[in-house]
Design goal:
With about 140 residues, the protein is an alpha+beta fold. Helices cover about 25% and strands about 50% of the residues. Helix 1 crosses helix 3. It is globular and about 45 Å long.
Length: about 140
């Protein structure tokens, strides 16, 4: 899965506050478009989600999948990969935060491989829409306090 999509956004908040919103996976159904359920199955030694089951329902897409999360010790990044999925064969993603002057640049990288064949160009376009929406919703959630 070499092809991936990456995009960044600047958020008017410190990295710690941005990461707190990212790490609060159970609240995603309140603000993340299409996420209807999040269940934390396991946590790491610091209480952060390590294994998470999610449900997605958006337009004609309906999926349930399990992701494994790896949190950086410095609190500035998180990576995840697909453990089990219905519509997905693979998913690798990350958020990387860079703070400057109380503002945070969030870089989101995503690569998804579906169980049904999809032309690479269409897959990357779908990834871009997912990332763009997710970053804008994240900024709205963080900046709303």
């Amino acid at each position: 899965m070499a092809d991936q999509t990456t995009q960044s956004i600047e958020i008017a908040a410190p990295a710690e506050r941005v990461m707190a919103v990212i790490a609060d996976l159970p609240s995603y159904p309140e603000w993340a478009d299409g996420i209807t359920m999040v269940e934390v199955l396991e946590t790491d030694d610091r209480g952060r989600p390590a294994l998470v089951r999610m449900a997605l329902e958006k337009a004609v897409v309906k999926d349930e999948y399990t992701l494994a999360y790896e949190w950086a010790e410095d609190g500035r990044s998180v990576r995840w990969h697909l453990v089990k999925g219905q519509m997905q064969k693979a998913q690798n993603g990350s958020y990387v935060l860079t703070e400057r002057d109380g503002r945070t640049t969030v870089t989101y990288t995503l690569a998804v491989e579906l169980t049904i064949p999809m032309i690479g160009l269409l897959r990357r376009k779908a990834e871009k829409v997912i990332i763009d929406t997710a970053l804008k919703e994240l900024r709205r959630r963080v900046e709303a306090g």
